[in-house]
Design brief:
Layout: E1 3-13, H1 17-30, E2 34-39, E3 45-56, E4 60-70, H2 75-97, E5 101-107, E6 111-115, E7 125-126, E8 142-146, H3 156-160, E9 164-170, E10 173-179, E11 193-194
Parallel strand pairs: 2-11, 7-9
Antiparallel strand pairs: 1-4, 2-3, 3-4, 5-10, 6-8, 9-10
Length: about 200
């Protein structure tokens, strides 16, 4: 089975804290997810492994999505599946963020970002890639800390109390939101039947 790669830049609205939070949750849901996909028309099978990063220019959030694909070079099928997957992920992210809990907010100048050793990484902490310090592994190899005192922000107790904690930088404020854990999206998904172009 041949392997090949492709990628996309998907723009999300980010004019409000809530819109940016939804986009960050979509990135969290898709990063590291794997799917086995079968085309309805001809039975073609592909294995897709997704990685996600992001950029923000102050108005537009860009999800930088890449996929490593095992199987034939069926770009139409991959595009159709990816569009279908993203539609479902956006709907799930909107549902999760609608249940958000405001945890904290601080001026951006009171928060600093630093790399952490692997045993201190938290997969349930969602921080935008563009906040990562130089040399940090994204998305989990760094955390936010209080400038005064140097304590992790949020601390492990806050993280343990929520399915996910989302760090949302907006204007000059850093917001913390807690949301429920996703329903196992991407964990050995069977994939969805895909109708290319449909």
């Amino acid at each position: 089975m041949e392997n090949w790669e492709t990628g996309w830049e998907i723009e999300f609205p980010a004019a409000t804290v809530e819109e940016l939070m939804v986009a960050l949750v979509v990135r969290d849901l898709v990063h590291g997810s794997s799917f086995d996909v079968e085309a309805v028309e001809d039975g073609a099978e592909l294995a897709l492994d997704f990685l996600a990063g992001d950029e923000f220019d102050g108005e537009t959030y860009r999800l930088l999505l890449s996929a490593e694909i095992g199987g034939s070079d069926d770009r139409k099928l991959v595009q159709a599946f990816t569009e279908q997957m993203l539609e479902e992920l956006v709907a799930e992210a909107e549902e999760l963020t609608a249940q958000h809990e405001d945890l904290d907010a601080r001026p951006a100048g009171e928060v600093v970002y630093a790399t952490v050793p692997e045993d201190e990484e938290r997969w349930d902490l969602v921080i935008p890639d563009w906040l990562a310090p130089d040399g940090a592994e994204v998305p989990f190899g760094f955390r936010a800390f209080e400038v005064a005192g140097g304590k992790p922000w949020p601390d492990d107790g806050v993280l343990d109390a929520h399915g996910r904690v989302i760090v949302v930088p907006f204007a000059d404020t850093i917001h913390l939101f807690g949301i429920p854990a996703p329903d196992g999206w991407g964990e050995e998904e069977e994939g969805l039947p895909v109708h290319p172009g449909g």
